[in-house]
Amino acid sequence: MNYHKKRNEFGHPEWLDFPREGNNQSYHYARRQFNLVDMDNLRYRQLYTFDRDMNRTEDKYGWLAAPPAYISAKHEGDKVIVFDRANVLFIFNFHPSKSFQGYRVGVEAPGKYPFLF
């Protein structure tokens, strides 16, 4: 699979407005800007990488078809969300400037968990 061509909403720096009576049937804002992921001065590359890796994780573990996730932690100050779904533990740090080592989270089964990416 060529992930470079599998892009979605991260290619939309502007709003999307499909041709309709209210915009004179204009296609001006009904376009995706796929070139943005290749521009080094923008953050679309990092967003694309995140999206690509989530798609690869889905391909490997099939977590989207699994029952709903159990959210075991969400910490607004740390910007951390922890949940498990389809026997996969997801730990996301969305903090813009803080990294964490040894961040403790509760899990159902004790043991070591591999880091995927």
Description of the structure:
15% of the residues lie in helices and 15% in strands. It has 117 residues and is α+β, with helices and mostly antiparallel strands. It has 2 domains: 1-61, no CATH class; 65-117, no CATH class. It has a 3-stranded antiparallel β-sheet with strand order 1-2-3, with no helix packed on it. The longest helix has 18 residues, at 44-61. The chain is elongated. The two termini are 19 Å apart. The model is unreliable at 1-8 (pLDDT under 50).
* Morphology call: elongated
Which class of secondary structure composition applies to the elements? alpha+beta
| Structural domain tally | 2
By DSSP, the count of extended strands is: 3
Helix coverage percent of residues? Answer: 10-25%
Please list the strands of the largest sheet in the order they lie side by side: 1-2-3
Low-confidence stretches: 1-8
Order of helices and strands: HEEE
Number of helical segments with 4 or more residues: 1
Strand content: 15-25%
Major sheet details: 3 strands, antiparallel
| Gyration radius, in Å | 18 Å
Alpha-carbon distance between the two ends: 19 Å
Overall mean confidence score, pLDDT: 82
